[in-house]
Amino acid sequence: MEDIYYSDYIELDKILNSQHPKSFETLEEGNDEMLFIIIHQVYELWFKQILFELDLVRHIFIRGRINDNSDDLSRAAQKLKRIGKILELINQQVSVLETMTALDFLEFRNLLLPASGFQSRQFRLIEAKLGLKMEQRYKKEYYKYTRRGSLSEIDAREIDQAEGESTLKELIIQWLERMPFFHEEYWKDYKRSSPVDKRSTIAPRALGGGPVDKQVTAADSGDGHKFWIDYRSAYQNSLSESEAGRLREFDKVFFEEGRGNVSPAAMRAALFITIYRNLPIFHLPFELLNTLSEIDELLSNWRYRHFMMVRRMIGLRVGTGGTSGAGYLEGTLSQHYAFREITEVATFLIERSKRPLLPNALKEKVSFNL
Ligand code: HEM
Predict the structure, then answer these.
(1) Per-residue confidence at 164, pLDDT binned at 50, 70, 90?
(2) Which residues in 9-61 belong to E strands, given as ranges?
């Protein structure tokens, strides 16, 4: 068998023959359009790798019940970390493009109208598969495929389909909802740290509600689950006068409505993991949640860098894709997060030393493999 050759293996000819700057057809000397094309291609290659990793992670969670004692969770965490590293890298690449000046860009800008990064199918798929929904998007009217400069009908359909499949966010919510932390058997030797507060505004049913906590009512002291009563009381004590309203929010988020599209049961599990992340069994779940917040942050860092670069390149002019340009991009910055609710769990943390002590039975026995 003939030895395989490097350039054949990576199909280099195809890649290296895929740069055809439009302005070069009439110019004697090149301009920055070559850089502009190459940088977009490099981004799209990395988007492809991100999507590949994202699909792997989704499949780990989709395959029925994740086996938390296998290496499923560590594989998922490792893949998500890799996505984070790629995002770090592509954030840095913005500065390469920033060596092009606004005047350099004007030399070829009109030739690419109405094409724009807005039409990046892969970027939209990353957003959709992470969990960003069309209703949450800033200026969703821009996405109508009938609008010039928007996505093609085929691409729009594919993104719509990705949104309808299990997104990473939905899978993470389901995984959190299945956490078996509150089974009665673990709480027999729990020592309450706050007096029973008869005026507690948390409905006992709400405390035990959700698919995870069916067993909780058995452990109830009549006022809801003792752990959450203690935690709530410690949280209340941690609030300054100006933040007193947060207690009402605490009840809403963890016992009534949840937050965004994350259920109260999933929010409780996320908070629980975050509080007790020092316990070995929570290391991986915490790392996973933390990496999701990191991915959101890195993506928004990218949005910010891209927005700043765009402002330098085109000022306040409309984009080639027909949006308002920098103004539109600034709007996406505050709105386009997939894991906002998970990140904002930090709102409800208390000092380490004030955390309720977990019962030994839970510490010893809690296992994800129930
Ligand atoms: C000179 C450099 C660039 C300029 C002036 C620029 C400009 C813009 C503008 C104005 C938009 C808003 C849509 C529109 O009306 O066109 C946009 C969107 C976008 N651009 Fe760029 N861009 C540049 C480089 C890049 C690069 C290198 C990438 C990498 C793939 C990229 C990816 C995107 C993406 C993904 C969007 C959609 C963002 C969103 O809707 O959240 N852009 N760009």
Answers:
(1) very high
(2) none
